[in-house]
C-alpha cells in the first residue's frame, strides 16, 4: 500500500512530520539493497517547464550508492542529450525518517526532500520529491525500474499515485525508450562520479555530435541552470 497520508501531507503542507512518522515503506536494514542502477521509467510533476517538453525526455539512469559519510547517500544521474552523455552527481543527507533524504543547494537556495515511497528493491521504486525555494513548491513523482521495461500494472499504479499527489494527468509521462540509443547503452562504462551538481559532457563514438544543451530550471526560467528540473 502506498503511503498516501504522508504524501498528501507533503502536497497540502500540513503537519508533514506527523504524517511522515506513520511510516514510509522502506526498511533501513535493506538500504544497501536499493543501491545500484535504476532506469528512469516515468515522471509526474507540477513543474510547468517539464510539462512543455515532456515529449523530449529520453530514458536515463540513476545510480545510488553509499555516500562520502555514513549519513549520506550518493546519486548519479546519467542522460543522453543531443548526442552527449551528461552526468550529475550529488550527496543526499539521511534523516531520522527511514527512506527520507534531503539535499540543499546554497547557490540557488533550493531544498529538496526525497522520499522512497514504495519499492520491492529488486524490480521498481517510486520516489516522491518535494522541492522548495523562494519561487514556491514543486512536487515530482518518479518511477524507476531495475530494467528498462516494467509491468503495465506498476505504471498504472504510478499514474494513480501521482494524480493523488495533485499532479495533473497530462503532466505524467513515460520516458522515451530508444533501446540501444538510450543513455543506459551509449553511456555505459562512464566513470560513475563527477563533481556534485555539475553536468559533464562525455565523449561518444562521434565527438562531432556534441551540441551544448542547457535545462532551464522551473524556479528561475530566465536563468540557465543545468539539470535542476530532474
UniProtKB/TrEMBL annotation:
Keywords on record: Disulfide bond, Protease inhibitor, Secreted, Serine protease inhibitor, Signal
Chief place of localization: secreted
SUPFAM superfamilies hit by this protein: Lipocalins
Gene Ontology cellular-component annotations: extracellular region
Pfam family, one: Lipocalin
Domain Lipocalin/cytosolic fatty-acid binding, chain residue ranges per copy: 36-177
MF terms in GO: serine-type endopeptidase inhibitor activity
Subcellular location: Secreted
Name assigned to this protein: Alpha-1-microglobulin/bikunin
Biological source species: Gopherus evgoodei
Lineage of the species this protein comes from: Eukaryota, Metazoa, Chordata, Craniata, Vertebrata
Gene behind this protein: AMBP
